[in-house]
Design goal:
By secondary structure, this protein is α+β, with helices and mostly antiparallel strands. The chain has helices at 2-15, 24-41; strands at 49-55, 59-66, 72-79, 87-89, 94-100, 105-111. A three-stranded antiparallel beta sheet has the order 1-2-5, with no helix packed on it. Strands 4-3-6 form a three-stranded antiparallel beta sheet, with no helix packed on it. The longest helix is centred in the first third of the chain and has 18 residues, at 24-41. The termini are far apart. 16% of the residues are buried.
């Protein structure tokens, strides 16, 4: 029984359960930075990418300009329908995607 208890304690210690060597304020900052990194991996474009849209009488067009130093793979995102195709955009390049105006809503751009 003692061997099982030691093993369980070792597992809990290895996973960090109930034990923290980092002060709470630093742990909170680390979790926030980690969450932001995961969000960017899930599709948020870098801050160096500018996004905007223009609406006409019939169509709505979404744009994304790569102001980054490197190439970005991204697509225009729309609500209430399919997104634009994934495109490779070199630095300084702009992509666009045009859709019927109603009922679509421009949601920006995301990496792909």
């Amino acid at each position: 029984m003692r061997k099982l208890g030691t093993y369980a304690l070792a597992v809990l210690a290895a996973t960090g359960f109930g034990l923290s060597a980092v002060p709470a304020a630093q742990a909170s900052t680390a979790r926030q930075a980690s969450a932001e990194s995961v969000a960017s991996l899930r599709g948020r474009v870098p801050t160096c990418v500018d996004v905007w849209s223009k609406s006409g009488k019939v169509y709505k067009t979404g744009y994304a300009r790569n102001g980054c130093k490197g190439t970005v793979h991204m697509k225009i995102v729309w609500a209430h329908g399919p997104d634009g195709p994934c495109q490779t955009v070199r630095p300084g390049g702009t992509i666009y995607n045009r859709v019927p105006r109603f009922p679509r809503t421009f949601d920006g751009a995301k990496t792909c």
